[in-house]
Write a structure and sequence with these properties.
The protein starts with a helix and ends with a helix. By secondary structure, the protein is an alpha/beta fold. It has one domain: P-loop containing nucleotide triphosphate hydrolases (Rossmann fold). It binds adenosine-5'-triphosphate and magnesium ion (MG). The site of magnesium ion has 4 residues, from helix 2. Magnesium ion binds next to helix 2.
Length: 285
Protein backbone atom coordinates (compact mmCIF):
# COMPACT_ATOMS: atom_id res chain seq x y z
CA UNK A 1 0.00 0.00 0.00
CA UNK A 2 1.35 3.40 -0.94
CA UNK A 3 2.01 5.85 1.85
CA UNK A 4 0.32 9.21 2.32
CA UNK A 5 3.35 11.20 1.21
CA UNK A 6 3.51 9.35 -2.11
CA UNK A 7 -0.20 9.87 -2.80
CA UNK A 8 0.13 13.57 -1.98
CA UNK A 9 3.10 13.94 -4.31
CA UNK A 10 0.98 12.50 -7.12
CA UNK A 11 -1.79 14.98 -6.29
CA UNK A 12 0.64 17.91 -6.41
CA UNK A 13 2.02 16.73 -9.74
CA UNK A 14 -1.40 16.24 -11.29
CA UNK A 15 -2.44 19.67 -10.04
CA UNK A 16 0.68 21.19 -11.62
CA UNK A 17 0.04 19.39 -14.89
CA UNK A 18 -3.47 20.83 -15.00
CA UNK A 19 -1.79 24.23 -14.91
CA UNK A 20 -3.96 25.54 -12.08
CA UNK A 21 -4.54 29.14 -13.19
CA UNK A 22 -4.92 30.76 -9.79
CA UNK A 23 -3.08 30.10 -6.59
CA UNK A 24 -3.77 32.09 -3.46
CA UNK A 25 -0.85 33.43 -1.47
CA UNK A 26 -0.64 31.50 1.79
CA UNK A 27 0.61 33.47 4.76
CA UNK A 28 1.13 32.15 8.30
CA UNK A 29 1.12 34.69 11.12
CA UNK A 30 3.14 33.54 14.11
CA UNK A 31 5.26 34.61 17.09
CA UNK A 32 7.67 33.12 19.57
CA UNK A 33 5.95 34.53 22.61
CA UNK A 34 2.16 34.55 23.10
CA UNK A 35 -0.08 37.60 23.42
CA UNK A 36 1.97 39.85 21.13
CA UNK A 37 -0.87 40.71 18.73
CA UNK A 38 -0.98 37.93 16.11
CA UNK A 39 -4.74 37.65 16.03
CA UNK A 40 -5.25 41.40 15.92
CA UNK A 41 -2.77 41.64 13.07
CA UNK A 42 -4.27 38.68 11.16
CA UNK A 43 -7.82 39.98 11.45
CA UNK A 44 -7.07 43.61 10.61
CA UNK A 45 -4.58 42.82 7.84
CA UNK A 46 -7.20 40.55 6.26
CA UNK A 47 -9.74 43.36 6.45
CA UNK A 48 -7.36 45.88 4.85
CA UNK A 49 -6.46 43.48 2.04
CA UNK A 50 -10.15 42.80 1.46
CA UNK A 51 -10.90 46.52 1.33
CA UNK A 52 -8.17 46.81 -1.30
CA UNK A 53 -10.13 44.43 -3.50
CA UNK A 54 -8.46 41.15 -2.54
CA UNK A 55 -10.38 37.98 -1.75
CA UNK A 56 -9.20 36.86 1.66
CA UNK A 57 -9.91 33.80 3.81
CA UNK A 58 -8.63 33.80 7.37
CA UNK A 59 -8.16 30.42 9.03
CA UNK A 60 -7.98 30.20 12.80
CA UNK A 61 -5.70 27.34 13.76
CA UNK A 62 -6.16 27.88 17.48
CA UNK A 63 -9.89 27.66 17.93
CA UNK A 64 -11.28 28.91 21.20
CA UNK A 65 -8.10 30.28 22.76
CA UNK A 66 -8.96 33.98 22.75
CA UNK A 67 -8.68 34.05 19.02
CA UNK A 68 -10.58 35.07 15.93
CA UNK A 69 -13.98 33.78 17.02
CA UNK A 70 -13.80 35.62 20.32
CA UNK A 71 -12.24 38.72 18.84
CA UNK A 72 -15.06 39.09 16.34
CA UNK A 73 -17.87 37.74 18.48
CA UNK A 74 -18.45 34.90 16.05
CA UNK A 75 -19.55 31.50 17.25
CA UNK A 76 -18.39 28.93 14.75
CA UNK A 77 -20.79 26.06 14.33
CA UNK A 78 -18.40 23.97 12.28
CA UNK A 79 -14.70 23.73 11.68
CA UNK A 80 -12.52 22.23 8.98
CA UNK A 81 -12.66 18.87 10.73
CA UNK A 82 -16.34 18.63 9.74
CA UNK A 83 -15.35 18.99 6.08
CA UNK A 84 -12.65 16.40 6.46
CA UNK A 85 -15.00 13.96 8.15
CA UNK A 86 -17.50 14.47 5.34
CA UNK A 87 -20.18 15.84 7.72
CA UNK A 88 -20.23 19.28 6.05
CA UNK A 89 -19.37 20.85 2.75
CA UNK A 90 -16.63 23.47 2.62
CA UNK A 91 -19.23 26.19 2.03
CA UNK A 92 -20.86 25.31 5.39
CA UNK A 93 -17.73 26.04 7.43
CA UNK A 94 -16.97 29.36 5.76
CA UNK A 95 -18.31 32.24 7.86
CA UNK A 96 -18.81 35.80 6.69
CA UNK A 97 -16.47 38.05 8.63
CA UNK A 98 -16.16 41.83 8.52
CA UNK A 99 -15.48 43.74 5.27
CA UNK A 100 -15.96 40.66 3.11
CA UNK A 101 -13.29 38.54 4.81
CA UNK A 102 -14.18 34.86 4.98
CA UNK A 103 -13.37 33.09 8.23
CA UNK A 104 -12.82 29.39 8.84
CA UNK A 105 -12.31 27.78 12.21
CA UNK A 106 -9.46 25.33 11.66
CA UNK A 107 -8.64 24.36 15.20
CA UNK A 108 -8.60 20.70 16.03
CA UNK A 109 -10.01 20.02 12.57
CA UNK A 110 -6.58 20.43 11.07
CA UNK A 111 -5.02 18.02 13.51
CA UNK A 112 -7.25 15.15 12.46
CA UNK A 113 -5.82 15.29 8.93
CA UNK A 114 -2.65 13.67 10.16
CA UNK A 115 -4.58 10.52 11.07
CA UNK A 116 -6.67 10.15 7.93
CA UNK A 117 -6.34 7.26 5.57
CA UNK A 118 -4.87 8.14 2.19
CA UNK A 119 -8.19 8.09 0.33
CA UNK A 120 -9.76 10.37 2.94
CA UNK A 121 -6.81 12.72 2.68
CA UNK A 122 -7.06 12.90 -1.12
CA UNK A 123 -10.73 13.68 -0.93
CA UNK A 124 -10.18 16.32 1.79
CA UNK A 125 -7.54 18.14 -0.17
CA UNK A 126 -9.65 18.05 -3.31
CA UNK A 127 -12.48 19.66 -1.38
CA UNK A 128 -10.24 22.53 -0.36
CA UNK A 129 -9.01 23.33 -3.84
CA UNK A 130 -11.86 25.81 -4.41
CA UNK A 131 -10.43 27.84 -1.53
CA UNK A 132 -7.29 28.37 -3.53
CA UNK A 133 -9.20 29.25 -6.68
CA UNK A 134 -11.50 31.73 -4.95
CA UNK A 135 -8.92 33.58 -2.90
CA UNK A 136 -5.99 35.91 -3.39
CA UNK A 137 -4.83 35.40 0.20
CA UNK A 138 -5.28 32.56 2.69
CA UNK A 139 -4.04 33.71 6.07
CA UNK A 140 -3.43 31.28 8.94
CA UNK A 141 -3.43 32.70 12.46
CA UNK A 142 -1.19 30.18 14.26
CA UNK A 143 -0.53 29.76 17.95
CA UNK A 144 2.67 31.04 19.56
CA UNK A 145 5.86 29.12 20.19
CA UNK A 146 7.56 26.10 18.73
CA UNK A 147 5.18 23.27 19.56
CA UNK A 148 4.94 20.55 16.94
CA UNK A 149 1.50 21.85 15.95
CA UNK A 150 2.71 25.39 15.21
CA UNK A 151 6.00 24.38 13.61
CA UNK A 152 4.17 22.25 11.03
CA UNK A 153 2.51 25.41 9.70
CA UNK A 154 5.76 27.33 9.65
CA UNK A 155 7.48 24.64 7.66
CA UNK A 156 4.63 24.41 5.16
CA UNK A 157 4.01 28.13 4.55
CA UNK A 158 5.77 30.10 1.84
CA UNK A 159 5.30 33.46 3.48
CA UNK A 160 5.45 33.92 7.25
CA UNK A 161 4.85 37.01 9.34
CA UNK A 162 6.71 36.80 12.66
CA UNK A 163 5.17 39.22 15.16
CA UNK A 164 7.15 40.48 18.12
CA UNK A 165 6.94 43.26 20.64
CA UNK A 166 9.98 45.31 21.64
CA UNK A 167 10.80 43.28 24.75
CA UNK A 168 13.96 41.15 24.99
CA UNK A 169 12.09 37.93 25.76
CA UNK A 170 9.72 38.37 22.83
CA UNK A 171 12.59 39.24 20.47
CA UNK A 172 14.61 36.23 21.65
CA UNK A 173 11.62 33.93 21.14
CA UNK A 174 10.99 35.44 17.68
CA UNK A 175 14.61 34.63 16.82
CA UNK A 176 14.03 31.04 17.99
CA UNK A 177 11.13 30.69 15.55
CA UNK A 178 13.10 32.30 12.71
CA UNK A 179 15.97 29.90 13.37
CA UNK A 180 13.72 26.87 12.93
CA UNK A 181 12.17 28.22 9.74
CA UNK A 182 15.54 29.16 8.24
CA UNK A 183 16.83 25.65 8.82
CA UNK A 184 13.87 23.54 7.72
CA UNK A 185 11.99 25.85 5.32
CA UNK A 186 14.85 27.84 3.78
CA UNK A 187 12.83 29.04 0.79
CA UNK A 188 10.21 30.75 2.95
CA UNK A 189 9.99 34.50 3.00
CA UNK A 190 9.95 35.84 6.55
CA UNK A 191 8.51 39.23 7.37
CA UNK A 192 8.95 40.82 10.78
CA UNK A 193 6.18 42.98 12.26
CA UNK A 194 6.90 44.80 15.51
CA UNK A 195 3.80 45.51 17.56
CA UNK A 196 3.16 47.82 20.51
CA UNK A 197 6.11 50.11 19.75
CA UNK A 198 6.40 53.64 21.21
CA UNK A 199 7.51 55.00 17.85
CA UNK A 200 8.87 53.83 14.51
CA UNK A 201 12.48 54.18 15.68
CA UNK A 202 11.87 51.58 18.37
CA UNK A 203 10.42 49.21 15.76
CA UNK A 204 13.33 49.84 13.39
CA UNK A 205 15.83 48.99 16.13
CA UNK A 206 14.11 45.66 16.83
CA UNK A 207 14.06 44.71 13.16
CA UNK A 208 17.69 45.76 12.67
CA UNK A 209 18.76 43.63 15.64
CA UNK A 210 16.87 40.61 14.34
CA UNK A 211 18.16 41.15 10.79
CA UNK A 212 21.70 41.40 12.07
CA UNK A 213 21.64 38.16 14.08
CA UNK A 214 19.69 36.29 11.39
CA UNK A 215 22.20 37.41 8.78
CA UNK A 216 25.22 36.63 10.94
CA UNK A 217 24.22 33.29 12.45
CA UNK A 218 21.63 31.93 10.03
CA UNK A 219 22.60 33.67 6.78
CA UNK A 220 18.92 34.35 6.36
CA UNK A 221 17.38 37.62 5.15
CA UNK A 222 14.40 39.09 6.99
CA UNK A 223 11.94 41.49 5.42
CA UNK A 224 10.64 44.31 7.63
CA UNK A 225 6.84 44.44 7.30
CA UNK A 226 6.23 47.41 9.57
CA UNK A 227 5.61 48.68 13.09
CA UNK A 228 2.36 49.12 14.99
CA UNK A 229 2.31 51.60 17.84
CA UNK A 230 0.88 50.80 21.22
CA UNK A 231 -2.65 52.13 20.73
CA UNK A 232 -5.35 52.15 23.44
CA UNK A 233 -7.98 51.79 20.70
CA UNK A 234 -6.83 48.20 20.16
CA UNK A 235 -7.85 46.79 23.58
CA UNK A 236 -11.01 48.92 23.43
CA UNK A 237 -11.97 47.34 20.11
CA UNK A 238 -11.08 43.86 21.43
CA UNK A 239 -13.47 44.39 24.37
CA UNK A 240 -16.21 45.39 21.93
CA UNK A 241 -15.39 42.27 19.84
CA UNK A 242 -14.79 44.50 16.83
CA UNK A 243 -11.69 44.87 14.64
CA UNK A 244 -9.88 48.13 15.39
CA UNK A 245 -9.39 48.93 11.71
CA UNK A 246 -13.17 49.30 11.45
CA UNK A 247 -13.95 50.93 14.81
CA UNK A 248 -10.97 53.32 14.63
CA UNK A 249 -9.95 53.51 10.96
CA UNK A 250 -7.87 56.65 11.49
CA UNK A 251 -5.98 55.40 14.53
CA UNK A 252 -2.22 54.91 14.30
CA UNK A 253 -2.61 51.14 14.55
CA UNK A 254 -5.06 51.12 11.62
CA UNK A 255 -2.76 53.27 9.49
CA UNK A 256 0.15 50.92 10.19
CA UNK A 257 -1.84 47.85 9.23
CA UNK A 258 -2.95 49.54 6.03
CA UNK A 259 0.68 50.22 5.13
CA UNK A 260 1.51 46.57 5.76
CA UNK A 261 -1.27 45.48 3.40
CA UNK A 262 -0.06 47.91 0.75
CA UNK A 263 3.48 46.64 1.20
CA UNK A 264 2.43 43.00 0.75
CA UNK A 265 0.45 43.87 -2.36
CA UNK A 266 3.28 45.88 -3.87
CA UNK A 267 5.81 43.05 -3.59
CA UNK A 268 6.81 41.44 -6.86
CA UNK A 269 4.51 38.50 -7.49
CA UNK A 270 5.66 35.60 -5.37
CA UNK A 271 4.78 32.44 -7.29
CA UNK A 272 2.66 30.50 -4.83
CA UNK A 273 2.86 26.73 -4.97
CA UNK A 274 -0.70 26.60 -3.73
CA UNK A 275 -2.78 24.79 -1.15
CA UNK A 276 -2.15 21.25 -2.34
CA UNK A 277 1.56 21.76 -1.92
CA UNK A 278 0.93 23.48 1.43
CA UNK A 279 -1.06 20.55 2.81
CA UNK A 280 1.41 18.12 1.32
CA UNK A 281 4.16 19.76 3.36
CA UNK A 282 1.94 20.20 6.43
CA UNK A 283 1.36 16.46 6.74
CA UNK A 284 4.57 15.05 5.40
CA UNK A 285 6.65 16.90 7.95
N1 LIG B 1 -0.94 47.71 19.02
C1 LIG B 1 -1.51 47.39 20.18
N2 LIG B 1 -1.72 48.34 21.13
C2 LIG B 1 -2.29 48.03 22.33
N3 LIG B 1 -2.70 46.80 22.67
C3 LIG B 1 -2.55 45.81 21.77
C4 LIG B 1 -1.95 46.05 20.49
N4 LIG B 1 -1.93 44.87 19.81
C5 LIG B 1 -2.50 43.94 20.63
N5 LIG B 1 -2.86 44.50 21.80
C6 LIG B 1 -3.50 43.80 22.94
O1 LIG B 1 -2.73 42.65 23.25
C7 LIG B 1 -3.58 41.55 23.56
C8 LIG B 1 -3.14 40.33 22.79
O2 LIG B 1 -3.43 40.50 21.42
P1 LIG B 1 -3.74 39.26 20.47
O3 LIG B 1 -4.82 38.42 21.03
O4 LIG B 1 -3.90 39.76 19.09
O5 LIG B 1 -2.35 38.49 20.63
P2 LIG B 1 -1.97 37.01 20.13
O6 LIG B 1 -0.50 37.06 19.78
O7 LIG B 1 -2.89 36.55 19.08
O8 LIG B 1 -2.20 36.16 21.46
P3 LIG B 1 -2.18 34.53 21.60
O9 LIG B 1 -0.72 34.15 21.56
O10 LIG B 1 -2.81 34.29 22.92
O11 LIG B 1 -2.94 33.98 20.44
C9 LIG B 1 -5.00 41.98 23.26
O12 LIG B 1 -5.68 42.13 24.49
C10 LIG B 1 -4.90 43.32 22.57
O13 LIG B 1 -5.84 44.23 23.02
MG1 LIG C 1 -4.10 34.85 18.98
Amino acid sequence: MRDQAERLRELVNSQNQKGNPHKARIIAVTSGKGGVGKTNLSVNLSICLSKMGQNVTLIDTDLGLANIDLMLGIIPQYHLGHVFSGEQELADVIMDGPAGVKIIAGGSGLQVLADLSSWQLDSCINRLITLEENNDFIIFDTGAGISNKVVRFLLAAEEIIVVTIPEPTSIADAYGVIKIISKDNPNAKIYVAVNMVRNDEEGEQVVERLQMVAEKFLHFPLEPLGYIQYDSNVPKAVKQQQPFSLTHPNSKASQSIKQMAQYLLALPQHPSRGLTSFFHKLFSW
